[in-house]
Q: What sequence folds into this?
């Protein structure tokens, strides 16, 4: 079954970590810069994230995402550079357009934070199968029902996409024009929405029944098909990230 | 109308060829396409109606090269009934569903309605005009999807597993409908795993195996090659197998033919109980 996932199958110690440790790692590296609040901490976390991504050999994947956000970032620099509320010190001027240090600094912080959020999330997303993450959470007490709902949402969307194209194919085969102007295409798509949603609902209901006949709702504790393997790196990583979080909070409170 | 498939190669993913140079010429007769799952049968018919374009080689429908026409244009010449009716049926009333194709082809409301009514009657669903397709059974939805293509009155009609989910009556009805279309001069191509259906309705059969045509000929010829068929996991009709097991000289395609063949065989062997009709009747009951 296809699911929505950016997971990249590779061998690395990051891939080998259990999902919960990775979740913990990602969350800490994402939050610490916000707790501390300065550019330096953001840079450090971003550096760690990029290092982790290259260890996992998936770093090339994030370049395209970062490149796509280039326009956004340039806009950010122009707007903050000229109009940031705290602008005092002139940095440089292009003709009549004056850019200020404070604004540019703020734009840099925002950009780094943005990069950090993306790369931290990617450490988790690119190296973890969604189903593994869900399974790990279920082991730690997430209700299997909620786990199932999460997993099926991830599966239903690609299913709907592929159904849409098959249904479109069937209608084109009966002479429906789907190429050409936007209006023509919209007209073609809209009537197909109802059967799509309908068939997804039917499919979901059938899957629910198929689960139920295999005693999904039984009350006794569930076992798991796979043994969970906790890598020996997991504990040190959890300890380090916890220490990092504590340090960040102390920094914030004391300084 | 003539359909020519010339040395067509096709793949969905590079390095995984699905059709490896298929050449077929369809004209006039009704042809069954058979072969194991994944042989490339559905892919072949999607190439014929233009949903897929060949990677190399070409497909011609009459004087049209499918590469030069949109699927919607090709629909004027080729009707394709999808394997799974749930991929095709999308209106909430059977009447609208069946009239959808004819209207797209530019038929007037009255003509479209008349054509749809006739097609629905052909599949035995004249009473379901106002039903919601989702309230029908899978077998009935399949019949609706067949009617909605037949109503388009195209010169070429392709069925992807028409007898799927049908009971005996449904299969008979589809057989009758195909005979009727043949009589009107339509070019019929059907993919099917139902060999009795092939033997009964289709004078010609094409066997695909892993993207290649391994046999193409009259159905009788095709079923007389159990060696090749076994390779592609196709099992001839039981009557044919019985005939072969008994060593009849002719390949038989139906129970009637088998009975005639066996009787002929026995009388040629001279006597035994050849003239003993009481014994014969007991034997064949
Ligand atoms: N959209 C697709 N994308 C990728 N591969 C596909 C696609 N559709 C079919 N295939 C592959 O192409 C091969 C031929 O498929 P096809 O559907 O033509 O087989 P078929 O002969 O119709 O089989 P069946 O009897 O199961 O309907 C199969 O290996 C299938 O997995
Ligand atoms: Mg098929």
A:
């Amino acid at each position: 079954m296809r699911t929505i996932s950016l997971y990249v199958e590779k061998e690395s110690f990051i891939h080998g970590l259990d999902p919960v440790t990775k979740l913990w790692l990602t969350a800490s590296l994402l939050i610490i810069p916000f707790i501390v609040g300065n550019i330096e901490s953001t840079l450090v976390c971003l550096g760690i994230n990029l290092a982790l991504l290259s260890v996992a050999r998936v770093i090339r994947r994030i370049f395209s995402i970062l490149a796509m956000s280039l326009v956004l970032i340039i806009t950010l620099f122009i707007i903050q550079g000229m109009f940031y509320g705290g602008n005092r010190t002139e940095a440089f001027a292009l003709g009549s357009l004056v850019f200020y240090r404070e604004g540019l600094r703020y734009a840099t912080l925002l950009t780094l934070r943005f990069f950090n959020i993306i790369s931290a999330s990617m450490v988790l997303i690119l190296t973890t199968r969604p189903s593994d993450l869900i399974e790990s959470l279920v082991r730690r007490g997430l209700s299997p029902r909620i786990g199932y709902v999460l997993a099926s949402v991830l599966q239903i969307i690609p299913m709907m996409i592929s159904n849409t194209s098959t249904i479109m194919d069937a209608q084109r085969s009966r002479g429906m024009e789907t190429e050409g102007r936007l209006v023509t295409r919209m007209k073609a798509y809209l009537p197909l929405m109802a059967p799509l949603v309908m068939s997804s609902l039917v499919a979901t209901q059938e899957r629910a029944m198929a689960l139920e006949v295999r005693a999904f709702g039984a009350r006794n504790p569930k076992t798991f098909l796979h043994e969970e393997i906790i890598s020996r790196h997991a504990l040190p990583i959890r300890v380090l990230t916890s220490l990092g979080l504590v340090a960040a909070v102390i920094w914030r409170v004391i300084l | 109308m003539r359909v020519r498939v010339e040395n067509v190669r096709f793949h969905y993913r590079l390095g995984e060829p699905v059709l490896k140079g298929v050449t077929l010429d369809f004209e006039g007769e009704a042809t069954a396409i058979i072969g194991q799952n994944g042989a490339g049968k559905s892919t072949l018919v999607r190439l014929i109606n233009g949903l897929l374009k060949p990677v190399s080689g070409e497909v011609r429908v009459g004087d049209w090269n499918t590469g030069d026409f949109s699927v919607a244009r090709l629909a004027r010449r080729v009707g394709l009934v999808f394997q799974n009716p749930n991929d095709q049926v999308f209106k909430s009333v059977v009447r609208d569903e069946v009239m959808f194709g004819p209207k797209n082809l530019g038929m007037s409301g009255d003509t479209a309605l008349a054509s749809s009514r006739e097609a629905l009657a052909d599949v035995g669903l004249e009473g379901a005009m106002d039903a919601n397709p989702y309230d029908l059974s899978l077998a009935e939805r399949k019949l609706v999807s067949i009617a909605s293509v037949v109503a388009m009155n195209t010169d070429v009609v392709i069925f992807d597993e028409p007898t799927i989910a049908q009971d005996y009556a449904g299969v008979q009805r589809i057989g009758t409908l195909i005979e009727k279309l043949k009589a009107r001069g339509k070019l019929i191509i059907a993919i099917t795993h139902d060999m009795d259906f092939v033997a009964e309705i289709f004078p010609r059969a094409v066997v695909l195996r892993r993207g290649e045509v391994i046999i193409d000929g009259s159905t009788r010829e095709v079923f007389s090659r159990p060696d090749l068929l076994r390779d592609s996991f196709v099992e001839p009709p039981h009557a044919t197998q019985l005939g072969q097991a008994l060593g009849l000289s002719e390949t038989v395609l139906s129970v009637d033919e088998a009975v005639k063949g066996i009787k002929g065989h026995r009388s040629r062997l001279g006597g035994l109980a050849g003239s003993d009709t009481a014994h014969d009747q007991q034997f064949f009951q």
About this structure: The longest helix of chain B spans residues 168-183.
